[in-house]
Amino acid sequence: MPDIAVIHDKAVDLDAVAGPLSKFFTLKSQLLDDYVAGEPLNADLHVFFTNPRSGPTFESLKAATELCDGAKIFVLPTHNSDSITKLYNLGINDYVVLPIEPHELRELAKKTLHQQVYSSWALLDPVKQKALTTSLKCFEKCFLHLRRGEPLPIEDITDSCEHIREAAALGGLNEWIDSLDRHHNYSFRHSMFVCGTLTYFAHSIGIRGADLELLTIGGLLHDIGKSKIPFEILDKPGKLDDQEWETMKLHPVYSRTILLNEQNLDKIIVTMATSHHEKLDGTGYPDGLSGSKIDDFVRMTTIADIYSALIDKRAYKGAMNSVEALDVMQLSRDQLDPDLFRIFREYVLDQDEAELAEPQTHVA
Asked: Which partner for 363 in 120, 198, 348, 349 could form a disulfide, CB atoms 3.0-4.6 Å apart?
């Protein structure tokens, strides 16, 4: 979940900006004078909410933007052409003038964060860059189609998954994960963590052809049922309460319904999406499956899903490194396929060793 810092002066109503953003982002705030005089807040996006018309305020704002590392947008309490001219001289990414609809401010923040991530992807190998950009467009298109009651864009899904397999053939799972780490959309980030982890791992153990294609598509679509979960639950920056968690646990059931409605979609893709939260000891959901009733592809997806969740940062928990995540998973050995997990653990640790042996330029 990206951090947003709201830098403001005493004269503005902070809630006018903080209110619309706090439900979807991790938010922190600081007075402009304190930001300049003290230790500036670190954040993925800085939102400056002040009126730069006065000389002293503009000078403080200028000093603040020089301290600010990364993307920044400005919110003006009132429209003033002189203020806007001054803002452009500060190298802004974008600005808005109050009043503004809450969803418009959120979309501006998301767009600015997106642009920051896209810039970092431009530094990657073209094959991996293509895999990420096509997957993002495909993921957004899938959610849009489902919210409109339209069929999934199968051709786009097939195309993006082909690019992911091409990226996996190059190796470098950690680079894939690092490239996605700062994307603001948790659902996309997690789906691509899982899809990438599953595909890279499968490729490393010799899975090719139709089986690899099924695993990649299944990984991309494994959480497609989350398109039916309310945004306020799906993108909640804090931990879900009991009622919200029960709602979230419905997403595999929604996935099954969505995917069964698609023509010519392999059954195993439906099974991966429906059953990746099942556990070998029968304690999973939604059907409480156990043992031999859980397919090997599902077992692989479960491992990729748990690993991806553990290494990802959320507002209510920090991200684990790969060793910490594997150690936690080891404690659940009765729930995971022991042979697959052993091979997966070796693969991840080998990736870490390779990264140390041959340092790469990772996306910031």
From this structure: 120
